[in-house]
Automatic annotation (TrEMBL):
Signal peptide stretch: none
Protein name: Retrovirus-related Pol polyprotein from transposon TNT 1-94
CDD domains, sorted: RNase_HI_RT_Ty1 (cd09272)
SUPFAM superfamilies assigned to the protein according to its UniProt record, in alphabetical order: DNA/RNA polymerases (SSF56672)
Domain Reverse transcriptase Ty1/copia-type, residue spans: 1-154
Pfam families on file: RVT_2
Length: 291
């Protein structure tokens, strides 16, 4: 008789370290800079073979349509979210994925990337909450027992680069989160979905650069789906210019939303012009001016 790989059976009594010999990789592994991309390319090729089609502006969202049945697949690194109107198609998709990759079925989605999902099918409602995530943030900064604040910042508050520290302002934001952590984004089922945008801007609020801050938000049946607040890249010479820049930023996002939602095929009204509301009459007139 002969013992195979005999020396591999012994147990070491000392700590022994060695350099691993140079080797050629046949597949991607953790630690490679291209690992995430190679995973995406492999996954994308696989689901494309199952007749999924990727969204033209967000390749991590795919759609498969079979007559009146459809299923959405959302990929976030190694997390997959599936949404469908047919349980049979859902089972087929899960089986296909399991045959190609080692998968773990987590059941109905309840908590995804820091967002809690509440689905009230009988009422036609879907709500998104970040209460648990907010609680973790408050605990991290030892603010979980703090009193609530009605607003995160007041109009009179002004900040400058020479102000340091601004911990009091940060604590006020955390107190605002304490008072609003039970609030949720809620979407209602409707046969006539419509995307509506709102935009606004202040004027020269930055004490260091005199740049203005703009904001826009897009709603779908009362629930926000896209929003942004940021300092403008240019210095506006008037309130009209500041509001016009805000309208421009909102319009850029509107074009992206149109392309994104068109690929989803769930909002028929997206083919029409999107409504964007602005509260500055001069900016509205200027935006309608043809050069």
């Amino acid at each position: 008789m002969d013992v195979k790989t005999v020396f591999l059976n012994g147990n070491l009594e000392e700590n022994v370290y060695m350099d691993q010999p140079v080797c050629k990789l046949k597949k991607s592994i953790y630690g490679l800079k291209q690992a995430s991309r190679q995973w995406y390319l492999k996954f994308n090729d696989t689901i494309m073979s199952f007749e999924f089609k990727e969204n033209i502006v967000d390749q991590c969202i795919c759609l498969k349509v079979s007559v009146s049945k459809f299923i959405f697949l959302i990929l976030y690194v190694d997390d997959i979210l599936l949404a469908t109107n047919n349980l049979g198609l859902l089972s087929e998709t899960k089986k296909f994925l399991s045959n190609n990759f080692e998968m773990k079925d987590m059941g109905e989605a309840g908590y995804v990337i820091g967002i809690e999902i509440f689905c009230y099918k009988s009422q036609g409602l879907l709500s998104l909450s970040q209460k648990e995530y907010i609680n973790k943030v408050l605990e991290r900064f030892i603010m979980d027992k703090c009193s609530a604040s009605p607003v995160p910042i007041q109009k009179k508050d002004k900040f400058s680069l020479i102000q340091c520290p601004i911990w009091k302002a940060v604590k006020k934001v955390l107190r605002y989160l304490q008072g609003t952590k039970n609030h949720m984004l809620t979407y209602r089922r409707s046969d006539h979905l419509e995307v509506i945008g709102y935009t606004d801007s202040d004027f020269a609020s930055c004490m260091d650069t005199r740049k203005s801050t703009f904001i826009y938000v897009y709603l779908l049946d009362g629930g926000a789906i896209s929003w942004k607040s940021a300092k403008q890249s240019v210095i506006a010479a008037s309130t009209m210019e500041a509001e016009f820049v805000a309208c421009f930023e909102a319009t850029v996002q509107a074009n992206w939303l149109r392309n994104f939602i068109s690929g989803l095929g769930v909002v028929d009204s997206i083919a029409r012009s999107l409504k964007i509301y602005c509260d500055h009459f001069a900016a509205i007139l200027f935006s309608k001016k043809r050069c």
